[in-house]
Write a structure and sequence with these properties.
globular, alpha+beta, plasmid
Length: 99
C-alpha cells in the first residue's frame, strides 16, 4: 500500500486528513493547519501565473465532505477561516458543497 504524504509537513497523513484535488492530481494534507498554510503560501506566491490562480479545486474533509472552489483565492480564504475555527467568517461561504 502506498503511503500518503502531507504536501506541507512531509509526513505520512492520518486517515482523518484533507485531500485537495485539481485537474493534475491529488494532494494530501494532515489537518486544517496544513491546508491553510499550503493554500495561503501558494496564493501569495508573487510569480504564480494567473492561470494557476484560476484553477478549480475540490477539497475533501476528514469526514468525507467535499467542497469545490473555482479559484485558489477562494480556497485559501476558506482554509484560513476553517483553520482558525471562525464559524461567523464570511469566507466559510466560499465554494460550494459537492454531492
Amino acid at each position: 500500500m502506498k503511503r500518503q504524504i502531507c504536501s506541507y509537513d512531509m509526513v505520512a497523513v492520518p486517515s482523518s486528513s484533507y485531500t485537495v484535488t485539481d485537474g493534475e492530481g491529488e494532494m494530501y494534507l494532515c489537518n486544517s493547519r496544513c491546508l491553510c498554510i499550503w493554500a495561503v503560501m501558494l496564493v501569495t506566491k508573487h510569480n504564480l501565473p494567473e492561470s494557476e490562480r484560476d484553477r478549480s479545486f475540490v477539497v475533501t474533509s476528514p469526514v468525507g465532505k467535499k467542497r469545490s472552489f473555482d479559484k485558489l483565492t477562494d480556497l485559501a480564504q476558506w482554509a484560513a477561516a476553517n483553520a482558525l475555527g471562525k464559524p461567523e467568517s464570511e469566507w466559510l461561504m466560499n465554494g460550494r458543497d459537492v454531492e
